[in-house]
Amino acid sequence: MHTVHFPDPAKQPEKPESIAAAMGIMFSVDNYNVDLTDDEVKTIDNFFDSLYLNQFSDPTVLAEYGGLMNLIDMKNRWVYKGSLTTPPCSIGVFFNILSNVYPMK
User: What secondary structure does DSSP assign to the chain, as a single string?
Assistant: First the structure.
């Protein structure tokens, strides 16, 4: 899963060093490499249930993202500065790619 987070333009300096932050989290049904409690697995389940993946009319959703972000291991990740992956491909995006693979149903 790849998410992009844009800051509030009103709170940005005139020439910001970063225009966005991207988070990459990998999930697998059977090839995950973390041991989680039942409650932690439920947090992941709640996140995916909140996406309404069967409704494609509106790509913007309010998801249970905070619980998921509190669960993940941010100490084991790759970080690099790059650009947006879609036009206009603006530079100044900080990418965070987690090295762990998390379970999903």
Answer: -EEEE---GGGS-SS-S-SEEEEEEEEESS-------HHHHHHHHHHHHTT-TT--S-S-----HHHHHHHS-TTSEEEEEEE-SSTT--EEEEEEEEEEEEE--
Q: Which residue type, as a one-letter code, is found at position 26? A: M
Going residue by residue through the chain (105 aa), what tens digit of pLDDT does each one get? 988 888 887 777 676 677 888 999 999 999 999 999 999 999 999 888 887 666 666 555 566 788 999 999 999 999 999 998 888 888 889 999 999 999 998
